[in-house]
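Let's practice the habit of predicting before peeking. Look at the sequence and jot down your guess about where helices and strands might fall. Then scroll down.
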Amino acid sequence: MNKSHAVPMRYALPRNGVTKNNVVRRASLAGGVGSFVEWYDYGIYGLLVSSLVLVFSASDKSMTDAGLMLTYLGFTVSFVVRPFGGLICGYLGDRLGRQKLLAILLLMISLATAAIGLLPGYQTIGWAAPALLILLRIVQGFSAGGEVSGAGSFVAEYAEDHRRAVVMSPLVMGSFIALLFGSLLIVSMINIFGIAAVNSWMWRVPFLLAIPMAMIGVYIRTRIQDTPHFQMVKASQRVKRNPIREVLTSKRHLKAIGLAITLPAVNGPGYYILFVYMPTYLNKVMHFQQVQSLMVTACGLLTIIAAIPMMAWLSDRLGRRPLLIASAIAMAVLAWPCFWLLTLGMMPLACMAAILLALAFAGHAGVIQATLAEMFPTNVRYSAYSIGFNLSTVIFGGSAPLLMTWLIGLTGIASIPSYMVIFTAALTLISAIYLKETAGKPLTDE
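Done guessing? Here is the structure:
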């Protein structure tokens, strides 16, 4: 790859003379707040599946596999459209810039989330209710397809070379903080108003909160200029006319995209099984109370939120490969014993299992987005990053809740999720071994 060109200071700093460190902090904050809003909107669906089954399923029995499968279909289809969202957003982001597009994506997913909170149930409009739910999940999936790679590119292109993972850590933490906030919000609603009220109408409140959150997120994202790297590429007229065609016809980029698919393989199960699917798994399969299920998940979320900055700091000093390799090994080793602990049905052991898995996964979560951003040059970063990461998420993460629900119902084996974690951890481990170290190196622009 060509070496990165020095970024002129007139592109790196705003006109009001704010220091470079302040600009980097603003970019990191914009990424973190935007990530929180985006993934709160996206993740609240998984946390409220138990209530959504009652509202949008034809069955009067809330625990039926058919109801769960129907609701998780909405979860899965949102992932199917993610690569399309990533392609379109990647093309626009590499052609026109990152900042405005990210604000639009945030507004799009928030409006779709609020609309879910306003949908009539099956008893009111019949099959139109789940059909509209799935349609809105498609809109959310399209937006999410452009969010991770766009926000990752945005923050990475502002960050200093020697601390890129640390600067990007609020972006990563935002998604987990959003799930934690959602979990605690739902627990509070159940404790104060009761599960009957939540299932009846209060489930709508978390979805409607997307509107005020979106206003804050969009405001923050529109208060910072586009990245210095993209401004430099644009000023020097090195923007690719068709970045998608560029990455799909280049052996160098295709090889990197292939690695970007397999390297984050464990990221899908790590996020969607350990944190999004976990409350439903504990409630429906392990027969924990809903509040207990959410509290176990909250233990894991608190752990990973605290651990991510430390893991990012270590990766900036030790490298990306050591952290990714260590995390993959830890996930593979701990997955089955921890899921076995969950099957015992004891709250303290379940919390311990969640904490151990969260610690193991933090080494991957705190490093992977910085690694992927560093694999591609600025003029095609958004597009290539989107293609690789979204395909990885669809293959290894998006279908996980639906697949786990079906397999557990088919086999009666409660530890099946651990096997998926082990398989993807092994794939990540193999990929990390072949990864070229990028920590501390300048980003390339073409």
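How did you do? Residues 405 and 411 are 10 Å apart (CA to CA).
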